[in-house]
Amino acid sequence: MRHCIYPGTFDPITYGHLDVLRRAARLFDRVTVAVAVNPGKGPVFGVEERMAMIRPNLADLPNVAVTSFGGLLMEFARVQGADAIIRGLRALSDFEFEFNMALMNRHLEPAIETLFVMPNEQFSYCSSTLVKQVARYGGDVAHFVPPNVAGALRQTFAAAKG
């Protein structure tokens, strides 16, 4: 069985992430969404909250599982028995960072390939950072994230104001 890891902070998961995930689920027998424990990025949501926001959006993807990881991605991928890492590329500006990361990962674990997947162009400008900025100021993020995520963002930022 071919197995890939789709790593990310997913703070929060967006429709762009889900589009890349659906593409990966068609290409691989098993996909593991690996939510990064990365306190240095200052996530709005804890790792358990992020995983809980992802799971309801996977109901139609029986070959996809969600877990978390800390430390080196390639060590996690090796332990999981993964064949590949999937990374989404929204725009040319993502490429340089992702390219360098893929080269480092290849150095760390040559047997695991990195594949770049482009989301549908309607998601090319959407990022978790932009979604959080819009939500923080009360903007409507319904076009960018699933309903459960939009609700969590509203609740989080309403509580922060109150």
Task: Describe the model.
There is one protein chain. The chain is α/β, with parallel strands linked by helices and 162 residues long. It has a single domain, classed as 3-Layer(aba) Sandwich (Rossmann fold). Helix content is 43%, strand content 18%. It contains six helices and five strands, in the order βαβαβαβαβαα. It has a five-stranded parallel beta sheet with strand order 3-2-1-4-5. β4, α4 and β5 form a beta-alpha-beta unit. It is globular and about 50 Å long. The relative contact order is 0.20.
In short:
With 162 residues, the protein is of the alpha/beta class. Helix content is 43%, strand content 18%.
Ends apart, CA distance between termini: 50 Å
Which CATH architecture is right? Answer: 3-Layer(aba) Sandwich
User: In percent, how helical is the residue content?
Assistant: 40-55%
Number of contiguous helices: 6
How do the SSEs run, as a string of H and E?
EHEHEHEHEHH
Count of the domains: 1
